[in-house]
Amino acid sequence: MKAAILHGPNDFRVGTVETPKAGPGEIVIKVKAATICGTDIRILRGKKTKGVRFPSVLGHEFAGEVVDVGQGVTRFKCTDRVSVDPVVPCRACAYCRIGMENVCLNRQAIGYEFDGAFAEYLKVPAVAIEAGNVFPVPASLDYRAAALAEPLACCVNGFRNAGVKLGDAVVILGAGPIGLMHAELARLAGARFVLISDPNGMRRDAALARGVTHVCDPEKEDLAAKLKGLTDGLGADVAILAIGVPSLANDALALVRKGGNVNLFAGFSTGDMPPMDVNLIHYNEIIVTGASALTRQGYETALNLLASGQINGDTLITHEFTVDEAPAAFAEAESGRALKVLIRDA
Ligand SMILES: [Zn+2]
Ligand SMILES: [Zn+2]
Question: What digits encode the pLDDT tens for the residues 67-86?
């Protein structure tokens, strides 16, 4: 089969590898849709190294059709439409036991430890099937949107930490797919408004098209002043950092009211140590929260939000390529011209 193989940092080529076969407890799916994540680009550029193998196949946001079922698998059959939560928790460590399987000490992930979805076929390991990481795709949901259940589930996880409540004022930094998903979650959670900031005009337009009422070009407008104008001078209840620019973490501290929540959703590069005005956290009693990966429960929530139309996945996908064209797909994803870039079956 064809696969996009990462041989090392900045060394990404399409090649031919053996088509996987389902061993005991495993299934093989024909990948119908796989989307490129910002993390994939950080791995390609050598900015994320933890858990990364060479050579390997990336791709952890995907859905497909079951085409081979291994001995002992009873819950799935050929032709089933499935999508997969790629992060497999051990279900036994201290974190799994307290309901934080997203930070499981022994977690293994498809697209990292196991080969991922930028290929024609993908083998789902037995541990993922045992743990319940494989989900039927609801009939109302197409493969393209089902692939987005993974990033949306990550947003669901971070969004819980952000603690948006009814009537809140929410500011989101970054109007890429992640920022747009957070904006929709904020609307669903009853935020009174969302202000989203991004220097990229295409992304601001995408936010407006999705019903976000306030956008800001931070290169031309004073974001803090705009936000204060909307909140009687107080600032937002919640700020969500949806782009991994380290200096924005400090900016976000100045955008929330006293007692507000700053959620550092986006990942940063290894070694990023931006200066922070710690007195803002101290005197303003700001709650700073993080976000790491996803849970199986969050994945199911995400699938349901997409299938019910509460969140429109289709319109987040702006570009499509085949596996053969994977390097071009990555270039597009990196260009800033795209929202989500999809790699689909030929
Ligand atoms: Zn991802
Ligand atoms: Zn665990």
Answer: 999 999 999 999 999 999 99
| pLDDT confidence band for 47 (50 / 70 / 90) | confident
Nearest bound ligand to the CA of residue 110: 1
Give 109 Cα–ligand 2 centroid separation in angstroms.
Answer: 12
Answer for the pair 156, 180: CB distance below 8 angstroms, yes or no. no
CB atoms under 10 Å from CB of 189, counted, come to 18
Give the distance (Å) from ligand 2 centre to CA of residue 90. Answer: 4
| 41 neighbors 176 (Cβ within 8 angstroms) | no
Range 153-289 classified under CATH 3.40.50.720? yes
- 129 Cα–ligand 2 center, Å: 16
Q: The whole model's pTM is what?
A: 0.97
Rounded CA-CA distance 264/173 in Å is: 10
What distance in angstroms lies between residue 39's CA and the mean position of ligand 1's atoms?
6
Cis peptide before 55 (omega within 30 of 0): yes
The CATH number fitting domain 2-148+313-344, selected from 1.10.3720.10, 3.40.50.1260, 3.40.1010.20, 3.90.180.10 = 3.90.180.10
Is pLDDT at 190 greater than 90 in this prediction?
yes
